[in-house]
Every structure is written in C-alpha cells, then in structure tokens.
Amino acid sequence: MPRLSEVIAALENLWPPERAEAWDAVGTVVGEPDQDVTRVLFAVDPVQEIVDEAVRLGADLLVTHHPLYLRGTTTVAASTFKGRVVHTLIKNDIALHVAHTNADTADPGVSDALAGALDLRVVGPLVPDPSDPDGRRGLGRICELDHPLTVRELAARAAERLPATAQGIRVAGDPDALVRTVAVSGGSGDSLFDRVRAAGVDAFLTADLRHHPVSEARAHSPLALLDAAHWATEWPWCELAASQLDEISDRNGWGLRVHVSRTVTDPWTAHAASVTTSSTVATATTTAQGAPN
Ligand SMILES: [Zn+2]
C-alpha cells in the first residue's frame, strides 16, 4: 500500500507542476504525505458534491482537473463554500491533488482524451510547447477524421460520445459542410482562434465560445465551430488519467482502487430549445403574430 507522497510523486511525473501556466494553481491542496492510499477518485471539479462522493466511496485521494483555490485566500472557514470543501476533506482524511494546465499540455493530455472520445486521429498539438523536442506536448490537438463527416454528423457524434449535459452541442456554420480535419481543445478555447485559423482545419470543437469571437471567426473563414459544455470536454481526461494511474499501480504492485466520478458538475442544468430555429428572426415573428400565409 503506497503512501500519499509516493502516489503524488507518480502524478507529478505524469503532469509536472512546473509545466502549468504561471497564473495556475496546481499540485497538492490538502494531504498528509505519510498517509496510506488505497482508493483514488478522479473528477473535473473540486466541489462539495464530488467531495461528498469521495467520502461515500471511502477514497483517500481526490484528483481534480480544476483548482480549488486559484487566488490567495484568508479563510478556510466552513461557512464558505470552498472552506466547507477543505473541512470535509480533512475530517475524512482525504487528500486533494490538482492537475490543470499541466494536464492540458501533457502527452497524453486533456485534448488527447477529448479526441479519443470522438475517435479522431491526433496529428499534433495546436499550440506546441517549445520546450518539448518531440513536438508532442502543447495546448489543443489538430486531428484528422478517417472518413469525412458533415458538420451535422460530427456534432451528432460529439453529442453521443461526450457525457450528456443540459447544453448539448451548439454549432456555428454550414451543417452540411464536410469536415476532414478538426482542432479540439478541452475547456475554454476562445483564445485559440488565431492558431485554429493558422492550422487551416475545417472545424474547431471546444467549450465556452462567446458571441463576438465566434462572429468574427465565422466572418473570416468557413471554419465550423462546435461548442460543448466545458465539463463534458474535460471529463474524458478523468478516464484517461485514471487508466494511467491504474497502470502505475499495477507496475508498482500498489493495488490501488481507482475510480472516475460520473457526477455531472456542469453548472448548467436545463435547456429549453426554441420553438422555431430559423436564420431570420422575421420568420419566427410572423409565426408568433399568426400572420396569414
Ligand atoms: Zn476547465
């Protein structure tokens, strides 16, 4: 049975903390280095719901993608949302470890898991890490499809293969356009438009896309955009990461029990589809007014 410090060393070997962005807060948030570890839970968000799940499971270590604290704090009082998380973890002897942007840029990383979930063949990183001589690490991935799909079919595949969320998949672009190459980036991909355009791909699948950047990207190129729920684009990494730790456990004879949380922690909980979707508001207005036809 390994100690926490040994498991953390293995995790930091997969996702070295020094490879995280300067603004990020990764690594061990809560934990006693000498504590024994038998059960590990992977999840995207370190929220109370997930911590309660870790308690029920009898986990000794929770590994999340998102940090608990990104900025400095002066309190972990249990009356605060994050303080309650810290209290629950410590009272139940559960450690918390975060792998965020250091897992994004890893090889394999968050976007490899996303590409894998969609059966896309990864060609290379969208934004290569200059410190990687092999050119495999970096943000996002450029991928190829074995057989071209229409934008509509690719969106349907994403909706089917990614875990279900209230949002589903939003699409910008011609639904019948053919996609042979696609860039993917787990999490918020707004800032990557220039790199996506430079890559010359047919489509870009990411999360948290906003009106103005999408509007601008559409004006400049025929690039199709697919916007999934942030949580759903990062969840496949939990399964990848869990399988990586499983392998390490087997190699070392640790006998760890490694789990992946299936709790949906995407903050959006419902979606009402418009009655009529049309490219012109006039059509919908006419219908609403009951104009003669
Ligand atoms: Zn994220």
UniProtKB/TrEMBL annotation:
Its domain of life reads: Bacteria
Q: Name one GO cellular component term.
A: cytoplasm
The terms under GO molecular function for this entry are: metal ion binding
- The residues forming a coiled coil are none
Q: Provide the binding site for a divalent metal cation.
A: H65, H66, D104, H230, E234
Q: Which UniProt keywords apply?
A: Metal-binding
Family annotation (SUPFAM superfamilies) = NIF3 (NGG1p interacting factor 3)-like
Quaternary structure annotation from Swiss-Prot or TrEMBL: Homohexamer.
Please give the family membership noted in the entry: Belongs to the GTP cyclohydrolase I type 2/NIF3 family.
In Swiss-Prot or TrEMBL terms, this protein is called GTP cyclohydrolase 1 type 2 homolog
Lineage runs: Bacteria, Bacillati, Actinomycetota, Actinomycetes, Kitasatosporales
